[in-house]
Amino acid sequence: MKKFDLDQLAIFVAVADAGSFVRGAEWVHRSQSAVSMQIKSLEALTGRPLFARTTRNLALTADGQTLLGYARRLLQLRDQAWGAVVHPQLTGRVAIGVPDDYAATLLPPVLRRFSASYPGVDIEVVGLPSYALLPLLRNNRLDLACMTRIDGVSGEFVRNEPMIWAGSAQNRQIGHERPLPIAVFGAGSTSRTQAIRALQEAGIAYRMSYESPSLMGLLSMVDAGLAVAPLARCAVPERLIHLGTGEGLPALPALEVVLARSARSTRPPCDFLAEQILLELRL
Question: Which region among 28-37, 78-87, 263-272 has the lowest average model confidence (pLDDT)?
């Protein structure tokens, strides 16, 4: 009788959720070649192709969709069993703040696994820009914040997240437009500040084509081919392209992601969630 390896299934779920072998490998802290090998091994075990690979897209086959549902349930049961045996009495509430660009990709897998392991802990997620999360930490409205490091934040280092210029494949030449149309987060955003500084140092004229606190708002402008946006690489969907020096744009510095804690976060539920975030996201 064939047996599924749970670690292999976790890699499969990560690739399916990320929509990319590269991003899936980052999520599970493995090399892309190791992840590809595990997926090939799983396909050999099942005797079925699980992903339909094209030049630009990675999609699940019908068999892959079927396996994904079972894989999620098996992994959830594993996590629930672990939580029931190791921390059966852990209860409480954790309020965590996270900006849109990290909330869309970095946190969901972590929070999903944490909730499965500790069903007695309620999680409240507050989505705000990093600069708006700082006062909420100081007044103990939040327990934790996974955010970009800004002045006044002494959080624990998580990772350096590359920042790129996101553009539409239908209007690649937009990078050569002058003034350059940019879509950015509101004043106080680190990605906005660093992008404008990079443009100014490169002597590139620009205009604010769109300003919003919402990631979806910025992505809609990029999708329409009306602007480029300086974004954390983890927040850029596969359908968009990365523009760079070939399109006349300057390189951007990485964003330092940290995990900050409030004074009231010295409680077991906060400690366990902080530990899991650092374990799964730290590079």
Answer: 78-87
